[in-house]
Here is the input.
Amino acid sequence: MGDRKQARDEEFQAFVIGRWPRLMRTAFLLTGEQHAAEDLVQSTLEQVYVAWRKVGSADEPEAYVRRVMINAHARRHRRRLREFLAPKDDSGLAHEQPDTGDRIAQADDRNALLTALAELPARQREAVVLRYWEDLTETQTAEAMGCSVGAVKSNAAKGIAKLRAIPGLAETVTQGGRK
Here is the structure.
């Protein structure tokens, strides 16, 4: 019994170590703040650890964890959506440590892009983050968001359109996302 628990703990630890940068990037893009992203990832991993036997045996454990994270993020901000969409202090945006393979890190004005992304409505932001920065398919994004593929297409298109409408970001969005 103890050996199985230890093996499960080691499997969970290996999963966390291997996925931490990607989970943090997703959480940061969803929350817009480094500390909030850390809290979101940690609370997500707490929930996942309790159910690791089920999660670890899933076909795509990372997709399961991503869905838990999106649900946790939605629950946290459902009541405070207006306050969340208009952050008063963007200093947390400058503290995110870019991943060298992160396309968004190549943008000329990272802070402006992240600020604009944080101002999108929650569903549009989720669709843009998962579809373009996490490079998920429309089907994977729909599963993660718990909606239809059509809703993903609509939210992503509206989000990208809003980003393109911001002066100076049109070139960044076109280069960093899909045309």
